Structures are given as structure tokens and as C-alpha cells.
Amino acid sequence: MVVLNKIYTKTGDDGETALGDGSRVAKHGMRVTAYGTVDEANATVGMARLHASGEMDARLAAIQNDLFDLGADLCRPDLHKDADAEYPPLRMIESQIKRLESEIDAMNSGLEPLRSFILPGGSALSAHLHLCRTVTRRAERETVELATMESVNPWAVKYLNRLSDWFFVAARAANDSGKADVLWVPGANR
């Protein structure tokens, strides 16, 4: 269990932060950037949940928990040392991706076919889900970049990729099963 009695520690005042293994790195480092953007994505999900209810809200709550798992995964470098860790590191696993895929398939089965690219908007929930999608795509790009420099759990990258797809389909579902999607009209304002 996590206990936070004191919120400020002053240990980051020099521009460094601690990773999950206790090592200290620059706050502008790629690993911190990647899990920081995952945290940002989680905040956008919290905003979307203000407009969600029922099953959609429950799914978004599960995603928020997954995003904390993902942040814990990304803040723990060097996958090769997992077996030697005092506490087993929390890592993303295949079943989390499979759950997203199942939910995408279920939502997509009730949608109108796409005939055009769509613009973020329509309902408030849909607009917020599109924001979730774009922040998640940025987190994915940053995590992929991190993976070119250091070891990253491949399930973490796959989760982000699938999650952005989930948000796209959920945004369409939130627009009356795609009937209220805002369609892009190429060159409409020329």
C-alpha cells in the first residue's frame, strides 16, 4: 500500500527525479517524458468521465487504472533486472491489450461504417475521447522513442497503440453510434 504523508520532498528541486528502481534522472529525460504523458492521458480520461455513465464510465475507470499500471511500468527501467528486484515490478501484460481489443470489437460492431475522416466533436463525451486519443498517441510516440534508447516492455507500446484505437471507436460510439460524427469536408473553406 502507498502512504503519502508529505507531498513535497524537495528532492526534485535540482531538476532530477527518482525512478521506480531508486535511480535518479533528469526530469526532462525521455523516460520521465513518456510516463509523464501517460499521466496526462490519464487526466484527460478523468475529464471524459465527467460526461460518461454506465458501461462507458466503467470502461474508462478500468483504463485509468491501466494507465497507472503503465506509468509504474515505464518508471521502472531495465527489464533484465526484474528477477533481481526486491519487489516484482508492475508490468503491462497481454490480457490488458486483449481486453481493449474485445471492447473495440464490441463497440465497433454497432457503428455506422466510416465514409469520411471525422473531426473531433459531436457530443461532449466524444470530443473529450478524441482528446484522450491524441494525448495517448503522443504518449505512444514518446514511448516508442524511449524504446530506441532503453529497454521498454513491448506490451507497454502495444497497450498505447491499442488504447488510441479504443478512444477513436469509443468517440464514435459516443456520437450516437457514429450517426452524429462530424465529417471532414476536404477543401470546404477554400
In what order do the strands lie side by side in the largest sheet?
A: 1-2
CATH H-level homologous superfamily name = Cobalamin adenosyltransferase-like
**Helix/strand/pairing category:** mainly alpha
Number of helices: 5
CATH topology: Hypothetical Protein Ta1238, Chain: A
* Strand tally: 4
**From N to C, what is the helix and strand string?**
EEHHHEHHE
- Assign a percent range to the helix content: 40-55%
For the biggest sheet, the summary is: 2 strands, antiparallel
Your description of this structure?
The chain is 53% helix and 5% strand. The chain is elongated, with a radius of gyration of 18 Å. The chain has 5 helices and 4 strands. It is mainly alpha-helical. Keywords: ATP-binding, Cobalamin biosynthesis, Cytoplasm, Nucleotide-binding, Transferase.
Labels describing this entry:
single chain; Hypothetical Protein Ta1238, Chain: A; 190 residues; two-stranded antiparallel sheet; 5 helices; mainly alpha; two-stranded antiparallel ribbon; 53% helix
In terms of topology, how is this protein built?
Elements: E1 16-18, E2 24-26, H1 30-49, H2 54-74, H3 94-108, E3 118-119, H4 124-147, H5 154-173, E4 182-183
Antiparallel strand pairs: 1-2, 3-4
Helix pairs in contact: 1-2, 1-4, 3-5, 4-5
Short structural description:
This protein is mainly alpha-helical and 190 residues long. Helix content is 53%, strand content 5%.
